[in-house]
Write a structure and sequence with these properties.
alpha/beta, eight-stranded parallel β-barrel
C-alpha cells in the first residue's frame, strides 16, 4: 500500500524497523520476531541498508521474504553512497516487480573503515538526488512502477536534534525541504529522548513550508550497553539528565534499566499521541519485547485501533 494511503486510513501510524542479520541463524531468529510483531498489525515495517551497500543482498532477501511470507507492508532502505545509477536501478526494479510500494531514501554513511571515502564516482551525491531518481523510476518496459501507478512512496530522514554533519540548523531545514520538494512523501526522524526537540523540529518544518507527515523515531533503552550503542549510532544524540539519573539509580541492575528505558519510551509515546503525532516508528534492534511492552503500557491493541 502506498504510504499516502496509509495516512489517509489512519490518524496515527505505528511502524517498526529491522536490520538484516548476517547469519542464517540470526535471520531465522529475526523472522520469528517479525512474525510476533505482525500480530500488532503495524502500518508498515522497514529494513535497513548497510553503509556503502554492505548489506545489499541481505536487505533485499529480508524485504522479499517479509513481502512473500507475511501480510506486512515492507519498506526497504536505500542509500546513495557507493552506487552507480545502474546499480540503484538493479536494486529497485525487483522491488517494483514484487509489489513493494515504498522506499526510504538516505544519503548513507561511508563504508566501514573508509572515513575518507571518495564520492566522486557516486551517481547520487545527496539524498535529494536519490529521491528524484526514485520519483522518476520506470521499469524497463518504459511504463510506471509495477507496484503502484503513482510510483514509489518515498520516505526521508529528519533530525530533531540536528544533523551531525550540518551544524547550521537553518541550512539543515533547507536541505530537508529540498528532499520533500524532490518528491518525498513523508519524514521519519532520528531517535530522540526529549519530545521538546521533536515539537520544535515539527514547528520549524511548518515554518519552512514542509507539510508532509512527520513520523517520530523512538528507540527504547533496554540495557546500559544499548545506551552506549545509541550514542555511537546516533552521533549528537542528547540523553536528558533525568533519564541518565534514573538509569544510574538502577545500580547496574539490567532488569531495572530495562524497566526505566521502557517506561521512558512509553511516556514519550503517550505525550506524542496526546499532541497529534502522525506516526511513531520504533527502532526495534530486532527484538519484539520492548515494543510489545510499550503497546501494552499505552493501552494500544494494535495500530488499527489508532484510527
Amino acid at each position: 500500500m502506498h504510504i499516502d494511503d496509509l495516512f489517509k486510513l489512519r490518524t496515527t501510524t505505528f511502524s517498526f524497523e529491522f536490520f538484516p542479520p548476517k547469519t542464517d541463524a540470526g535471520a531465522e531468529k529475526l523472522f520469528a520476531t517479525v512474525q510476533e510483531l505482525e500480530t500488532l498489525r503495524p502500518s508498515f515495517v522497514s529494513v535497513t541498508y548497510g553503509a556503502g551497500g554492505s548489506t545489499r543482498d541481505l536487505t533485499r532477501k529480508l524485504v522479499l521474504r517479509i513481502m512473500y511470507e507475511t501480510n506486512l507492508e515492507v519498506t526497504p532502505h536505500l542509500t546513495c553512497i557507493g552506487h552507480t545509477e545502474a546499480e540503484i536501478y538493479d536494486l529497485i526494479e525487483p522491488y517494483a516487480q514484487a509489489g513493494v510500494s515504498n522506499i526510504f531514501a538516505l544519503a548513507g554513511d561511508p563504508p566501514a573503515g573508509q572515513p575518507d571515502y571518495d564520492r566522486t564516482h557516486d551517481a547520487f551525491q545527496h539524498a535529494c538526488d536519490l529521491v528524484r531518481f526514485l520519483r522518476d523510476f520506470r521499469d524497463r518496459t518504459g511504463g510506471q512502477t509495477i507496484a503502484d501507478p503513482r510510483g514509489f512512496g518515498i520516505g526521508v530522514a529528519g533530525f530533531p536534534e540536528g544533523h551531525p554533519g550540518t551544524p547550521n540548523r537553518l541550512r539543515e531545514i533547507d536541505f530537508l525541504k529540498e528532499k520533500v520538494d524532490a518528491g518525498a512523501n513523508y519524514i521519519i526522524t532520528q531517535l530522540f529522548f526529549d519530545n521538546r526537540d521533536f515539537y520544535d523540529f515539527r514547528e520549524r518544518c511548518e515554518l519552512a513550508g514542509i507539510s508532509v507527515p512527520i513520523i517520530a523515531g523512538i528507540m527504547p533503552i533496554t540495557s546500559e550497553g544499548n545506551l552506549r550503542r545509541m550514542s555511537e549510532l546516533a552521533l549528537g544524540a542528547r540523553f536528558p539528565a533525568r533519564l541518565l539519573r534514573a538509569i544510574n539509580r538502577c545500580g547496574g541492575d539490567p532488569d531495572a534499566v530495562r524497566r526505566v528505558g521502557t517506561h521512558w519510551a512509553s511516556e514519550q509515546c503517550r505525550d506524542l499521541l496526546d499532541n497529534q503525532i502522525r506516526g511513531v516508528h520504533f527502532y526495534t534492534l530486532n527484538s519484539s519485547s520492548a515494543t510489545r511492552e510499550i503497546y501494552a503500557n499505552l493501552g494500544v491493541k494494535d495500530s488499527l485501533s489508532l484510527g
